[in-house]
């Protein structure tokens, strides 16, 4: 073998080893550093008087940790703002006034009052006395039609004008024995806060939280696709019966319906969303109201308001406050705010 041949062989061998080395390093890098495909973790718990589902995914940390943090946050809010718990609202209802209220309580009361004003009282956070009379305050309460006299009396201690709230002096008081009930807004607020908790742990986390029909988006599916939300058929057998679809990349949607808490007597359905003017379940042909909003708190509160205001001014007026409305009527016809359909396209 000539010397030229030997050196040629040596050189090609070196090249071969170099290629092998580079490709194995590349392969190992790919195997170790490639992004794991995003998987969604689901967790459902009974919280806030309903089933709450957190669906979350993270490329940074365990989604179990994120879901647990979200659940803990919602539990904290339920305890703090529930009318039946031992939190700040229960305390206010016992004493009739509170000094030195904290920032969060202040924010929630302020928001509730603002929505009450914006909806001319269709949303009213002082109906606790009435809600108790009808037995809608608790799953286990006896549901019954109160007498006219009872309703008349209860109306004497309801109405948001009975709330005095002075933000600067951190003061709130209730006149005429009024009692605060944040049941139509606190669930949405809890969803917002739980999402904020998740985002604080991992800003890039995606998913959604569904608290019994109050849904807030953590982030788009796989980072780029919308979450498909079904609007329930109010007379359907289950949540699977859907009449319309909404595609959400962010923000929130909430539905208030007459099928959630109700009883039927003499073929009449009595449900938990009350008309603050009459003290009776709101009866204007609406059987469900769905609102798309910037936050779950706003969607939640405006959905209750839209249920009470109905077509006019609900569908037409509420978009001013960032609330797009879909109403389902008794005859199953539907009405939508202008712009609602934008969320019905992928
Ligand atoms: P759900 O809790 O079924 O999602 P809502 O968000 O509409 O329903 O809240 C209904 C609850 O709010 C009632 O159970 C009661 O505590 C309270 N509520 C009833 N009527 C009104 C009203 N007109 N405005 C504000 N809160 C109301
Ligand atoms: Mg609501």
From TrEMBL:
Gene3D superfamilies: ApbE-like domains
Cofactor(s) the protein requires to work: Mg(2+); Mn(2+)
Catalytic class of the enzyme: transferase
Reactions accelerated catalytically: L-threonyl-[protein] + FAD = FMN-L-threonyl-[protein] + AMP + H(+)
Domain of life: Bacteria
Cofactor, free-text remark: Magnesium. Can also use manganese.
InterPro entries listed in its UniProt record: ApbE, ApbE-like_sf
Alphabetically ordered keywords of this record: FAD, Flavoprotein, Magnesium, Membrane, Metal-binding, Transferase, Transmembrane, Transmembrane helix
Annotated GO MF terms: metal ion binding; transferase activity
Translocase in keyword set: no
Pfam families: ApbE (PF02424)
Residues where Mg(2+) binds: 184, 300, 304
Annotated transmembrane regions: 15-33
Enzyme Commission number(s) from the entry: 2.7.1.180
Family, similarity comment: Belongs to the ApbE family.
Name of the molecule in the record: FAD:protein FMN transferase
